[in-house]
Amino acid sequence: MEIYSYKICRDLLYSSIHDVGGRSWGYVIEGYPRTQAQAVDFENQASLLFERLDLALLIDCTEQFCCDSIKKRAEVAKENNDVRPDDDAEVVKIRLAMFKQNTLPMLKYFDDKGKLRVVRNKKSVDGDMDIDKIFVEVTSAIDNTIFIEDQESGKSLTSSKDGSTDEKDRKDL
């Protein structure tokens, strides 16, 4: 597995967003930005590529869950002869340390701007839950943040998941 430079990833991301243009309600970009400098750059580019950056999501999970998930992925990869160098236990520790050093300040940056939403609940760390439940939490956070103004016009991720619209559902009542 080859690790690509930040510049290559950045250029590919911005090029893809530019190519789609106004044909999208928005974008869910996973794993980027990872540093505060990237966040500032992304916001600057966002103002050129689309109207604004509305929301940053953190799917909160325990370090143990992260390590266990990566370990399971590595075991499957090993069975398929597709070993990733970044799945090594020592590399995982370094990645978690880098997350704390670089990504947590970036998350604070978005939190200070009122743009950070954290997927978790009081009883447990929700990032450790089933992926389908995480999907529901994420789409709810997006709906409640971004589409709150547009729900009158029938736009929401919850309704679009099953191909319906809120407007159509209201007419059927």
Automatic annotation (TrEMBL):
This is Adenylate kinase. Belongs to the adenylate kinase family. Keywords: Kinase, Nucleotide-binding, Transferase. Residues 163-173 have a biased composition (Basic and acidic residues). GO terms for biological process: nucleobase-containing compound metabolic process. GO terms for molecular function: ATP binding; nucleobase-containing compound kinase activity. Residues 153-173 are annotated as: Disordered. The keyword Transmembrane helix does not apply. It comes from Ascaris lumbricoides (Giant roundworm). It comes from the Eukaryota. The keyword Transferase applies. The lineage of its organism: Eukaryota, Metazoa, Ecdysozoa, Nematoda, Chromadorea.
